[in-house]
Design brief:
mainly alpha, DNA polymerase, domain 1, hpI Integrase, Chain A, three-stranded antiparallel β-sheet, flat, disordered N terminus, disordered C terminus
């Protein structure tokens, strides 16, 4: 495995060649290996303890940036070339603002952390227009309908319940280890989540028995791997060196193990990783299709729904921020735009114009009734629906319902 310090990486860029890939040669450091630029990026990312997903994303955008400028070495380019690339993404590629920010972060990482070159302020970049996106959320009834559609006893069903019941991101749920579920205290410990932070969330009582069954299933898989000469899990940092036998223990196994063994791309050892995220995404798409929900749904929708429903039930915004692991409360405040809240919503002027009012019966049914209004309001209402009533059957039915004074929905 490649191990280099930050200063050694900088020294290796004194001389370079461009032959398919940009290469960097030893610039006076005795015995140092010849590295490609991307090897140096990987090494620096691991020195900074960046996640594998971030490392992969940075390599993608750095490669895209170099190809855009015909594989020129980044030392020969500066603020002008970076502005050209980012403006190209915004104008020609029409990328989202978040995508443009990802590309900028990758390039800044290359220059600031790998090459140790100070960049300018980027005054001439054409930034993609930023919009305030409102998160997509399920209603409580939709959550219930979607969860029922997953195959009974499948890992996907349990993961979906964890996403909504604990407000987890998909990667956080997949990265859970057996030791992270504490049945005694009734908590789930989420480790090294976004930003490298740990947090604790309550364990829903409904999930205690399914989780115990899942741990038993994981134990059976782990026992079989040990008999086959495998069974070691990937450990963070240098724990494998400090505790050589920890990787073989049940506590460190992934709660949702993969269906097959695979080679660890960093260590080269054959291990059993966690389930791949595409398995969960495919199961969710099928469940949503069966429910007939016409929303842009992803696994993150469960997390949005978790926060929104907590807010609607009267939970403090600071408590929700802690449960979600947000660094800034402004990130959590976005859910106030979609939460109904304990107070009634503002009545539409169209409803008040024609005397409609929304009330809730003792059984919990929503009813829309026609309140007390005079004959002029009746005539205006009939006139506004007359064209629709003549042309469409549902328009005639609507007129009949209005004349009956109550519409149930």
């Amino acid at each position: 495995m490649l191990r280099v310090s930050g200063q050694l990486i900088v020294d290796l860029f004194d001389k370079l060649e461009v032959n398919g890939e940009i290469k960097c040669r030893n610039g006076g450091v005795g015995g140092a290996p010849t590295l490609t630029l991307f090897d140096a990026v990987r090494a620096t990312a691991r020195v900074r303890l960046l996640s594998r997903a971030t490392e992969k994303n940075y390599l993608h955008w750095i490669r895209h940036f170099l190809r855009f400028h015909n594989k020129r070495h980044p030392r020969t380019m500066g603020e002008k070339e970076i502005e050209q690339f980012l403006s190209y993404l915004s104008i020609r590629r029409n990328v989202a603002p978040s995508t443009q920010s990802q590309a900028l972060n990758a390039i800044v990482f290359l220059y600031r952390d790998v090459l140790r070159i100070d960049l300018g302020r980027f005054q001439n970049i054409r930034w993609a227009k930023r919009t305030q996106a409102i998160p997509v959320v399920f209603t409580r009834e939709e959550v219930r309908n979607v969860l029922v559609q997953f195959k009974q006893g499948s890992p996907q069903k349990l993961i979906a319940h964890l996403l909504y019941g604990c407000g987890l991101r998909l990667t956080e749920a997949l990265h859970l280890r057996v030791k992270d579920v504490d049945f005694g205290q009734g908590i789930v410990v989420v480790r090294s989540s976004k930003g490298g932070k740990d947090r604790v969330v309550p364990l829903p009582k409904l999930l205690e028995k399914p989780l115990l069954r899942q741990i038993q299933r994981t134990k059976e898989i782990h026992t079989g791997d040990l008999k086959a000469g495998y069974g070691k899990a990937s450990l963070p940092y240098a724990l494998a060196t400090k505790y050589p036998n920890a990787g073989s223990s049940l506590a460190w196994q992934y709660l949702f193990p993969s269906y097959k063994l695979s080679v660890d791309p960093r260590s080269g050892e054959t291990k059993r990783h966690h389930l791949y995220d595409s398995i969960m995404e495919g199961a969710l798409s099928e469940a949503v299709r069966r429910c007939g929900i016409n929303k842009k749904v992803s696994c993150h929708t469960f997390r949005h729904s978790y926060a929104t429903h907590l807010l609607e039930s009267g939970k403090n915004i600071r408590e929700i921020q802690t449960l979600l692991g947000h660094s800034n409360v402004k990130t959590t405040m976005i859910y106030t735009h979609v939460a109904k809240g304990p107070a009634p919503r503002c009545e539409s002027p169209l409803d008040s114009l024609f005397g409609f009012s929304e009330v809730r019966s003792e059984q919990g049914h929503k009813t829309v009734g026609i309140g007390a209004y005079d004959n002029k309001s009746k005539e205006a209402l009939a006139s506004s629906l007359s064209q629709t009533g003549r042309k469409y059957r549902w328009g005639r039915k609507l007129l009949q319902l209005i004349r009956s004074k109550v519409i149930r929905r």
